[in-house]
Backbone:
């Protein structure tokens, strides 16, 4: 008899995880934590792949009963917005769970860092902003640049880098009460110190408190379009090259009570050691699993399936050595112009690069092209892969060179 897996908030970025469970012979039921889909997800996945679709209307008892009717073996999150409901359902149904005690800290960026600090780990200095004058004074005391952002969001939505106290206050005013990418009102704002160092994305999977780092990515950044530290791309990084970052990441998972499932940790390697930027206790999006497998032969997908369906296999293999099959870079293009796109006149030059692997087009000819200011306004992503690291590094620079106003032809 196949296992029944309930996934909360499966949208396009995490359909591959649902498919991985289906491929392993499981039955998958989808739960939607809100009546309306967040606008950042342009369309629902094909609901035909699921054995059922339960829409949560706010009545937890009703949703629990509807889910229980499927006889689930697992309830897990399918995306950022589903973390807390998945924790509630899995705990209430007595299934493998991270529990609800630390659920808020797994979503709230302020509580996250305070929880990490309380565990004795390096954590960023921060302020929960409730008063403009306190924010001004805090920024003046910290000095230099600070980061002001919503306590709940994703994809760099609302993240603002502020050089002066006046800029911090302006960012606070702009964020508070606005609507985030998940169509939720920003009810709280956090200000944090600006961390200087090398930032890594560490993707993990856990099973019964055992952790596996499946893939690690080093961020390349630039200041462009008025956005400080815009992510220009990520470089695959061998897991064994940054043991201090991995050790710290596992300690963060323990501090946040993550015993089961995938997580996405953003960690800054600073002169004072690794420090958490923020954590998402769910699968990494952006096609990371595909490129992780390309780089090292493994990803969060198959490790998550093992963690839940074959925990004994996970326990036997989670310390096995990592591989380096290819060096991979994903480049995130940044449009400096806006309008109706006619074509990408220089795209063929990118396709001719020695390490060109794949393109992922977000804005197609005939569609409206926004000026890029965050992850949700990226026009396209380019995947580069090659056995020689220098080749992908050189090609990444070539993509950056080509990616200017001339890369986009806008309808007159």
Residues:
């Amino acid at each position: 008899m196949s296992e029944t897996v309930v996934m909360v908030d499966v949208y396009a970025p995490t359909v591959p995880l649902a498919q991985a469970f289906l491929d392993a012979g499981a039955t998958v039921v989808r739960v939607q934590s809100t009546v309306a889909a967040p606008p950042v997800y342009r369309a629902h996945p094909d609901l035909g792949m699921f054995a059922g679709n339960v829409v949560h209307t706010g009545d937890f008892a009703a949703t629990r009963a509807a889910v229980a009717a499927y006889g689930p073996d697992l309830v897990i999150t399918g995306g950022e917005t589903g973390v807390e409901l998945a924790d509630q359902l899995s705990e209430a149904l007595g299934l493998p769970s991270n529990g609800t005690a630390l659920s808020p800290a797994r979503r709230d960026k302020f509580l996250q860092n305070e929880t990490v600090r309380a565990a004795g780990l390096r954590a960023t200095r921060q302020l929960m902003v409730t008063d403009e004058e306190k924010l001004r004074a805090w920024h003046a005391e910290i000095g230099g640049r600070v980061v002001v952002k919503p306590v709940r969001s994703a994809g760099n939505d609302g993240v603002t880098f502020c050089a002066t106290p006046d800029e911090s206050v302006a960012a606070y005013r702009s964020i508070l009460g606005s609507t985030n990418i998940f169509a939720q009102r920003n009810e709280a704002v956090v200000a944090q110190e600006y961390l200087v160092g090398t930032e890594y994305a560490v993707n993990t999977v856990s099973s019964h408190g055992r952790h596996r780092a499946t893939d690690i990515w080093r961020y390349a950044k630039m200041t462009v379009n008025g956005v400080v530290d815009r992510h220009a791309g990520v470089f695959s990084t061998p897991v064994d090259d940054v043991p201090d970052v991995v050790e710290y990441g596992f300690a963060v998972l323990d501090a946040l009570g993550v015993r089961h499932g995938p997580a996405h940790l953003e960690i800054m390697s600073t002169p004072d050691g690794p420090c958490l930027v923020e954590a998402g206790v769910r699968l990494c999006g952006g096609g990371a699993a595909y490129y992780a497998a390309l780089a090292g032969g493994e990803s969060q997908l198959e490790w998550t399936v093992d963690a839940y369906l074959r925990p004994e296999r996970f326990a036997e293999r989670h310390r096995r050595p990592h591989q380096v099959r290819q060096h991979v870079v994903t480049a995130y293009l940044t449009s400096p112009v806006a309008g109706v796109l006619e074509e990408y006149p220089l795209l063929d030059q990118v396709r001719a690069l020695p390490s060109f692997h794949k393109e992922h087009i977000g804005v197609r000819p005939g569609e409206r092209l926004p000026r890029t200011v965050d992850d949700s306004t990226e026009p396209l992503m380019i995947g580069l892969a090659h056995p020689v690291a220098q080749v992908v590094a050189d090609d990444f620079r070539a993509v950056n060179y080509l990616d200017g106003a001339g890369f986009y032809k806008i309808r007159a």
